[in-house]
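ok so i was messing around last nite and threw this chain in just to see what happens. nothing serious, just curious
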Amino acid sequence: MDKPPLRDQPDLERFAPVRSWVFDLDNTLYPRHTNLFAQVDVRIRDYVQKLLSLGQAEAQLLQRDYYRRYGTTLRGLMVEHGIAPDDFLEYVHDIDHSPVEADPVLANAIARLPGKRYILTNGSRVHAEKVMARLGLGSGFEDIFDIARADLVPKPHPDTYARFLAENGVVPGEAAMFEDLARNLEVPKALGMATVLIVPRGTEPILAEAWETEGSEGAHIDYLTDDLGGFLTRIVDGLAARTTSP
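result:
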């Protein structure tokens, strides 16, 4: 699968007014090749298989279908089968987080960002906290807005963004959103946020469903990078140089 060309030189004029830095979690704060979400994927399939007494292949097809149509498999199971979410979330996020390695470049860049930092994820808070601890991000985030806080309505539903913005007092025109799924940036862009799509690094293959990569060339994507830590470093270094220059 061909990759879209990177657009990873940030325009400092675009980021100068940003005071709210909003990050997706999985395959965004850590690189896709870490393959952490593959563990979650397997556990979701197993959950669907046991719940509905399906074969493995059938369960995987249904899991993918719900993910594509509803934003998360959980939402599909809730709508189609009326399941309660707590057991699902606990089961699918009970994984080994050790593949996520500390990222001092990313941690340093995020710590230097002017304003407040947020996580907006379709996963659980517990999962987010474990990932952040592995990355070495510390406690410098204003809020972790997880799927429970979104009333179990996942991105890219507009209500999820509206709820996040309202609860945190985030002004879209003073915010930037970082995501690995292009469709999850359509609403932020329409609201006036700067949008950055994170893609696999270098020559790594894009191990994703075809629909997950759709829209990466769309007008709702301002920037596209395969190195979040480097991209943020260019922003904070550039902004710092502007404030110190005569």
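not much to say yet. DSSP finds ten helices and six strands in the chain.
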